[in-house]
Specification:
Elements: H1 8-26, E1 29-30, H2 31-38, H3 42-54, E2 58-62, E3 73-77, E4 83-90, E5 93-100, E6 105-112, H4 120-138, E7 145-152, E8 155-157, E9 162-166, E10 171-175, H5 176-183, E11 189-194, H6 195-206, E12 215-221, E13 225-231, E14 235-236, H7 267-270, H8 272-280, H9 289-301, H10 305-329, E15 333-337, H11 344-359, E16 368-371, H12 378-388
Parallel strand pairs: 4-7, 7-11, 12-15, 15-16
Antiparallel strand pairs: 1-3, 2-3, 4-5, 5-6, 8-9, 9-10, 12-13, 13-14
This protein binds zinc ion.
């Protein structure tokens, strides 16, 4: 296909996106600095800024500097007009929070669920109920909430918001988008995405791990394992939104049965539930994940042999799967997040050493492996970015 030449209107829209996202990422910036970062001339920047101000997306203020002379005018995102609701569905736990357009979290709700197999109709009712409650408590008009972004541990069709498969929630072909459209107020847009993809989006837009154009895989280790893939631009989702299912690649053909129905999936060896159950035995199934991980961590630091053994095994299996990812995709960077991030200082070095050892025979083995920037909040942050993308030109 012959590529159409870009016309002036397209170029202007691209420049406007660049200006808006530069201000969003920098938080507060002068016009001169904006011109330098965006590589647009001062007149173009000034015209675009004026348009964005008329659209109430930006605001101006005087710089708070102690230097004498004229204080420069600083631009920032107008965070008082629009709000966005982020929902992070984990297995047995849901986080919800309101964010403003500058990407700041205003408050947080934590809901524990006895039964991890959620009823999708009740879930959407609950989301609306909690959102209305937060608006009432904080004096926000529900009409100022533009959209809801939802992080789901499963495979999502982004065009319809159908959850194609979420083994850990017990969902198969759940039409979440249709339910949301029926139940939510007409002005509130709804968008869901896979949790690991959103974790990677959060790293791309708000984290400090990924230099521009870096091929990256985000490995999210919770009760299940998901991965988000970027070849240096946006997130790669695959032909049918199924990319990144490394958690269900088989590492032992006769291994334990997985929630997906297969045997010996990687996630059966590295999930935090496996780590907790290895330490506590069967009673680990009923433990609160946060508390159980904190205790295992403390015991490891006290020199407890069993804690050392389970963390050593976790590092071994984590490294095995990461080496498989490196052999398949050869990325520059691996980011490890999810609950296991809380153990990263205990197992990160062993994981990196073991991955390098496994790769030494058939690759240059110069992979960089780091913990996530968000200490477990990457799914919620990603869901907020997804929600904000109705106003801000993040590319999903
Ligand atoms: Zn599986």
């Amino acid at each position: 296909m012959v590529k159409k030449p870009r016309n002036l209107k397209h170029i202007k829209e691209d420049n406007k996106r660049t200006v808006l996202l530069s201000i969003w990422k920098e938080k507060a910036i002068s016009r001169a600095e904006l011109s330098r970062i965006s590589r647009l001339n001062k007149t173009t920047v000034s015209n675009l800024v004026n348009e964005l101000m008329q659209e109430s997306l930006l605001k101006e203020s005087l710089a708070t500097t102690s230097e004498k002379g004229r204080k420069p005018i600083i631009l920032s995102i107008n965070n008082s007009q629009s709000f966005f609701f982020a929902v992070d569905i984990k297995v047995g736990l849901i986080y919800m929070a309101l964010y403003d357009l500058a990407g700041e979290r205003r408050n947080l709700i934590t809901i524990k669920k006895e039964n991890p197999h959620l009823n999708p109709e009740a879930l959407i009712d609950d989301i609306l109920y909690q959102l209305e409650g937060l608006c009432r408590q904080n004096g926000y008009d529900l009409r100022s909430v533009h959209s809801i972004g939802v992080s789901v541990p499963g495979m999502i069709d982004l065009s319809t918001n159908e959850v194609i498969f979420s083994p850990n929630l017990g969902w198969h072909h759940v039409e979440l988008g249709e339910i949301a459209e029926r139940k939510l107020p007409s002005w509130i847009r709804f968008q869901a995405d896979n949790d690991a993809n959103l974790a990677l989006e959060a790293e791309i837009w708000k984290g400090d791990n990924i230099p521009p154009r870096t091929s990256t895989v985000f490995v999210s280790v919770n009760r299940g394992v998901g991965t988000g893939i970027s070849f240096g631009g946006g997130v790669y989702r695959g032909n049918t939104y199924g990319a990144g299912a490394f958690g269900h690649t088989i590492v032992s053909a006769d291994g334990p049965v997985c929630s997906c129905g297969q045997r010996g999936c990687w996630e059966r060896y590295v999930s935090v539930q496996k780590l907790i159950t290895d330490y506590y035995g069967e009673e680990g199934e009923t433990k609160d994940i946060d508390r159980a991980l904190s205790l295992i961590r403390l015991r490891f630091l006290d020199g407890d042999a069993k804690a050392k053994k389970v963390i050593h095994e976790e590092a071994y299996w984590l490294a095995l799967g990461i080496a498989n990812i490196c052999l398949s995709l050869d990325p520059q960077l691996i980011i490890v997040g999810g609950y296991i991030r809380r153990m990263w200082d205990l197992l990160g070095d062993s994981v990196t050493r073991e991955v390098q050892r496994r790769l030494s025979a058939c690759s240059k083995g110069n992979i960089k492996i780091v913990g996530s920037s968000f200490d477990g909040w990457e799914n919620l942050e990603g869901a907020a970015i997804l929600a904000m993308s109705v106003e801000l030109p993040f590319q999903f």
